């Protein structure tokens, strides 16, 4: 279940995330890896779709897309983005996996939803039952650079080390125990975060770290000025990442008929 997602994602955080997506090559690269499977699909279910990083470009390719997203701010942004793009073939369901019944789709996709993709998550054993053609999972590889300097900031201001989430290898291990051997592709991509100025960048770090005190903001101004990269429209936090795309085909069953 992903109940805490609705508490974490505020409209302001979603707006920052959307701006990063606008300049990212993430979606194109992931869907490029999945091209052989997508050629066989007309419908897709995106579990934990967020604001549509993959659901929206899928809707531009496929006949029908269902986006399952429990965070209200994310679901709202996804609906607005779909309307802005004139995509009437995408249904947004504001719920977590397991909260509502879902009908089978040709492709079932889940990207960067750690609660569903760890080695012992029930989702790994359940997902193929609603996939008529194939399943695709996307996780970080665990080899990314320090996310937004958290490894530096956590010990100084939160008094504890920053521990990133588990990586794709535990998902592969969990699938192996279920008898599934996915195709695995490691994929470098960019997820740079833009800011209009240093004050907005300070807002970003204070929001994510939950530290509103003025001494922290003063520290951030000097800290970020040395680490962010200036550009014509403002500043960016450069963030090269690497994802693992795991996918496999499922055996066709006549009873898996969607509506």
Short recap of the structure:
The chain has 259 residues and is α/β, with parallel strands linked by helices.
How would you describe the overall organization of this protein?
This protein has helices spanning 5-8, 11-22, 26-33, 35-38, 55-59, 72-84, 114-117, 122-126, 150-158, 168-177, 198-209, 214-227; strands at 43-47, 64-68, 90-93, 105-111, 131-140, 183-190, 193-195, 229-231, 234-237, 240-249. It is α/β, with parallel strands linked by helices and 259 residues long. Helix 11 packs across helix 12. The longest helix has 14 residues, at 214-227. The two termini are 25 Å apart.
Question: What number is the mean pLDDT?
Answer: 92
Tell me the strand percentage band: 15-25%
Largest sheet: 7 strands, mixed
Order of helices and strands: HHHHEHEHEEHHEHHEEHHEEE
By DSSP, the count of extended strands is 10
- Spatial shape: globular
Helicity, in percent?
A: 25-40%
Which value, in Å, is the CA radius of gyration?
19 Å
Side-by-side strand order of the widest sheet: 3-2-1-4-5-10-6
What class do helices, strands and sheet pairing give?
A: alpha/beta
Uncertain ranges: 1-6, 254-259
Number of helices: 12
Q: Span from first to last CA?
A: 25 Å
